[in-house]
């Protein structure tokens, strides 16, 4: 593939992978640690997940601004170094066995993580052509799926073999590798600083607020973009539920004695499903409109999530999870390839900076509701699956009604813009690009 001849993309690709691995493996091991040591208080595991999502509320208004105004390469690299340092603090904090202190460190580390992906995503957009966006999204999704298959399993295995401290060491090594990969990239200034070099004297609360407001206005005025981002908010409910519900399902219903093993099999099933779905999506992406790769899979996913709550058989549960992964693969590729096409490079950081907070807000809301409802009010997890299935169904119907029409409007606008540029080029042959 031509995209692999771009060394910067390859390095950023693996840097993102190791960065995500540094977060996920430790997080999974810590969830197992809490369920083992505080099995009578399942809300602890849910609160731990909240520590990964709540920081978004504190930093969301500056995340995108930082990615657009500062050197994107330095932002991404420094995020890794800071998280590596905080991971050392977490390693020491575990010896104190102080849950509030441990939660505080997890909270801070998650807050720094929020700055990484908008900067990294913006760098990728700056080094690829529009024709490569969907391909890059497919490759990213496929590699992430492979990591998901083995990463969560490794997290559970490390916890079983060397305990929570071993998992934290893996986190640290992953962050260091990611930082070194980003440092080795040779990315042009136009991609690192698309808005020009910023002087420290130009930085103020007022300017940050103005940049933040510009991002909101840009999203609102672009109906297709705002519709896609609304979908991300709804998907946050799905992410929040699946961050903790599978472990609860195995721990309290399907396999209380071997829940770690089956929770790992859940991740493996979902990962292999994502891998298969990503492969299918990458092959057919050029033959379908992006919205066609989204609407039907989202609808099917809503039905499958409903049946997850209905089944009492572990094998059927894992098979359904695999099919859900197959459905999610094309959805992620469609969105990943579509977003860079409709967002101006100078505003990519601010737009990306809105996606994560919206998803994390919905995820935090879901986790908070689960912590309150289960098991005091809702005694079984089945009804929680039904609620998530209903939300996803609403998204599929909403997208089915809006996306085809909005995509047609966007393509017409792009066609007119292209014709205008061509007309200007013919009128002024010395002008090569507008």
From TrEMBL:
The chain crosses the membrane at residues 12-35, 47-67, 138-158, 228-249, 261-284, 291-310, 316-338, 358-377, 383-403. GO terms for cellular component: plasma membrane. Signal peptide: none annotated. Residues 8-407 form the Major facilitator superfamily (MFS) profile domain. It is a multi-pass membrane protein. Gene3D superfamilies: MFS general substrate transporter like domains (1.20.1250.20). One of its GO terms (molecular function) is transmembrane transporter activity. PROSITE patterns: MFS. It is found in: Cell membrane. SUPFAM superfamilies: MFS general substrate transporter. InterPro entries: Drug_antiport (IPR004751), MFS (IPR011701), MFS_dom (IPR020846), MFS_trans_sf (IPR036259). The keyword Transport applies. Its main location: membrane. Keywords: Cell membrane, Membrane, Transmembrane, Transmembrane helix, Transport. It comes from the Bacteria. This is MFS transporter. The lineage of its organism: Bacteria, Bacillati, Bacillota, Bacilli, Bacillales.
């Amino acid at each position: 593939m031509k995209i692999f001849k771009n060394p910067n993309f390859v390095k950023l690709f693996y840097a993102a992978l190791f960065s995500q691995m540094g977060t996920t493996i430790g997080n999974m091991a810590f969830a197992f640690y809490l369920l083992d040591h505080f099995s009578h208080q399942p809300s602890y595991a849910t609160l731990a997940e909240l520590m990964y999502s709540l920081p978004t509320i504190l930093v969301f208004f500056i995340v995108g601004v930082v990615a657009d105004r500062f050197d994107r390469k330095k932002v991404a690299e420094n995020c890794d170094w800071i998280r590596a340092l905080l991971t050392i603090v977490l390693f020491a904090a575990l010896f104190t066995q102080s849950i509030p202190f441990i939660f505080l460190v997890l909270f801070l580390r998650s807050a720094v993580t929020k700055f990484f992906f908008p900067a990294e995503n913006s760098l990728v957009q700056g080094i690829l052509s529009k024709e490569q966006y969907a391909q890059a999204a497919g490759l990213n999704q496929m590699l992430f799926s492979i990591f998901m298959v083995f990463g969560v399993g490794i997290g559970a295995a490390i916890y079983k073999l060397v305990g929570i401290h071993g998992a934290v060491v893996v986190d640290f090594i992953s962050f260091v590798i990611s930082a070194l990969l980003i440092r080795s990239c040779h990315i042009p200034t136009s991609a690192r600083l698309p808005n020009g070099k910023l002087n420290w004297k130009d930085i103020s609360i007022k300017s940050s607020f103005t940049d933040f407001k510009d991002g909101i206005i840009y999203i609102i005025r672009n109906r297709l973009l705002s519709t896609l981002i609304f979908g991300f908010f709804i998907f946050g409910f799905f992410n929040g539920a699946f961050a903790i519900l599978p472990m609860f399902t195995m721990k309290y219903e399907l396999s209380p004695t071997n829940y770690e093993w089956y929770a790992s099999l859940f991740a493996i099933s979902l990962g292999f499903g994502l891998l298969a779905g990503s492969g299918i999506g990458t092959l057919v992406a050029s033959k379908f409109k992006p919205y066609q790769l989204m609407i039907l899979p989202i609808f099917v996913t809503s039905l499958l999530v409903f049946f997850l709550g209905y089944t009492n058989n572990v094998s059927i549960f894992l098979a359904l999870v695999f099919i859900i992964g197959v459905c999610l693969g094309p959805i992620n590729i469609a969105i990943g390839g579509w977003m860079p096409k409709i967002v101006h490079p100078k505003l990519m950081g601010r737009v990306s900076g809105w996606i994560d907070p919206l998803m994390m807000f919905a995820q935090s809301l879901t986790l908070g509701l689960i912590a309150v409802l289960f098991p005091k009010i809702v005694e079984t997890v089945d009804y929680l699956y039904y609620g998530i299935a209903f939300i996803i169904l609403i998204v599929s119907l909403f997208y089915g009604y809006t996306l085809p029409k909005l995509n047609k409007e966007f393509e017409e606008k792009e066609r007119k813009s292209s014709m205008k540029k061509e007309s200007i080029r013919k009128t002024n042959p010395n002008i090569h690009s507008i």
